[in-house]
Amino acid sequence: MDTMDTGGSTGSGLTGATGLRHSIDVAVIGAGVLGLAATDALLRQGVDVVCFEGREPGQGQSGGLTRTFRHRHDNEAVVRLAAEALTGWREWEKRCGRTLIGPEGAVYAGMEEVDAEGMRRHSVAHHWVDGSEAGTVFGSLSPTSGPLLVDPDAGAIRARRTIEMLTNWAGEHIVQAHVHGVSVPDDGEGVELQTADAIYRARHVLICAGTATPHLAAGAGIDIPLDCALHVRPHFPVREEFKDAPLPCWVDRSGEFGETVYGSVIGSSGTYVVGLIGASVDVPMNAGLPSGTEMESHARRLSNYVRKALPGLVPEPVGVRVCVMSKLPGGSDAFGVWHTPGVTAVTGHNLFKLAPVLGEALADCAHHDRLPAVLAEATEHALVEA
Ligand SMILES: Cc1cc2nc3c(=O)[nH]c(=O)nc-3n(C[C@H](O)[C@H](O)[C@H](O)COP(=O)(O)OP(=O)(O)OC[C@H]3O[C@@H](n4cnc5c(N)ncnc54)[C@H](O)[C@@H]3O)c2cc1C
Predict the structure, then answer these.
(1) pLDDT in tens, 118-169
(2) CA distance 63 to 94
(3) Nearest CA, atom 26, ligand 1
(4) Hey, what's the signal peptide range on this chain (predicted)?
């Protein structure tokens, strides 16, 4: 990774320097999955772009090994985006010659026909299985009283591999620098960015800084109501005798086993992550550091759930990941993209799966300095309390 050259033109998108100030066409802030996907799309469009990252790429919310790719969402517009994103994932796989979304599929409990309406409307393959035959689609699962919805083209995203691939594609266009702030001076000469080493002016700034997006966007007068909380995700070993049985991604909204949860296999590691979903399962970060006791109690609840619902897993976790969840008022699948001349900012939750399609759309915002209608609609939806 480069540090920024302080003079003249470089391959990393610096188009010139006047005194202490450097000019850039597009500056992306953040090398998480979205910033990297947007940088890649901009590079493919021939745009001069610099992606600023204060740490290592993929160490924020995009960290870790696995994410679920699923089609089903309450908001139909997101079902359509997910279907488009899958095409993008397959293109990325072709470019890098590796699997990025596994063939595991996804299984949902606690759903009714109306919950699959978006899938039906957008021609996304799906079918129902009787809960008494749960083991045929999810080997580790106990029989369920209700039917199970199967999303066969879903799967576990190889998250770390995706970040490595995108980081390679962006190459020297990633610059290691923390951006202290963004502002829009009234001299009409672009948007200003400050780092410890330099001041930059960009024609367009794309803020993809995850939980830090609201802080940076505020400098451009954009107000984003994002809540952040800590989330516990223990992982459990798959029992030897279930290792060859189907191990799909899992969403259980039925409450039949005492909790609502999601789950996903971690690649070929023989372990499976399970996390709680729903209101009040994340520990707010606003009131200082959350207590370890609260986090442990969540891990215990998940062990109890595994004992009842997933006998194919060993109910004692072999590891845990504590991570930051960021949520807009519209709930856990809501995301928003805000635009003002010269600045676009994105944040929300559950965005990993949408990275190929959001990367293209964000690149479009930066290239043409406008917000496409589909992103404006998603943002409106994200601001309505779930
Ligand atoms: C536990 C958990 C489970 C999840 N499960 C799923 C799932 O199953 N499916 C799914 O699709 N999504 C899931 N998500 C959500 C998904 O991982 C995130 O929505 C996505 O990774 C966000 O990517 P991002 O690029 O927007 O943000 P981030 O990955 O957070 O990237 C932001 C980057 O900006 C950098 N940065 C911040 N401030 C500055 C600054 N001032 N200067 C320079 N750099 C800066 C950070 O260092 C970071 O690298 C999950 C998230 C978590 C935490």
Answers:
(1) 999 999 999 999 999 999 999 999 999 999 999 999 999 999 999 999 999 9
(2) 23
(3) 210
(4) none
